[in-house]
Design a protein that fits this description.
- By secondary structure, the chain is an alpha+beta fold.
- Helix content is 41%, strand content 11%.
- A two-stranded antiparallel sheet has the order 1-4.
- α3 runs antiparallel to α4.
- The radius of gyration is 16 Å and the shape is globular.
């Protein structure tokens, strides 16, 4: 896993709830996802406001996964109906808010919004740069 963009303490401060037992793994996976989504973006990673946006996006990503029952690897989606004999599957129930696809990475809606508003997504140019 790559560089952690948010700490457990930052997650707790932003989310206002105790951190689940697996939060460090989720923060690492979310950090990797945010980094991958920004792979072709141009920005100064050392800028203070950029670091804060990255923390916000990572925390939002973890919050989203926890809300939909995902572990950052699986989607947490479930089938609406299942039968066993003679097999019958129905549609999948989707989360209330759908992830946004950026550079092949599914971002939580709030993570996407934080990155978009800061002009950090690939193909966007921030006025600060």
């Amino acid at each position: 896993m790559g560089r952690m963009l948010a700490t457990v303490e930052q997650y707790v401060a932003r989310c206002g709830q105790p951190a689940p037992a697996e939060v460090e793994v989720l923060l690492a996976r979310a950090s990797d996802d945010i980094t991958a989504a920004l792979i072709t973006a141009v920005y100064d990673p050392a800028a203070g406001d950029v670091a804060e946006v990255l923390v916000e996006a990572v925390c939002a990503q973890v919050e989203f996964w926890l809300a939909i029952g995902s572990d950052g690897v699986t989607t947490g989606e479930a089938w609406d109906a299942v039968s066993i004999g003679p097999v019958s599957l129905s549609g999948r129930s989707a989360p209330a808010a759908s992830p946004v696809l950026v550079a092949g990475v599914e971002l939580a809606p709030r993570a996407y919004r934080a990155l978009h508003l800061a002009g950090l997504l690939p193909g966007e140019v921030s006025e600060a740069w």
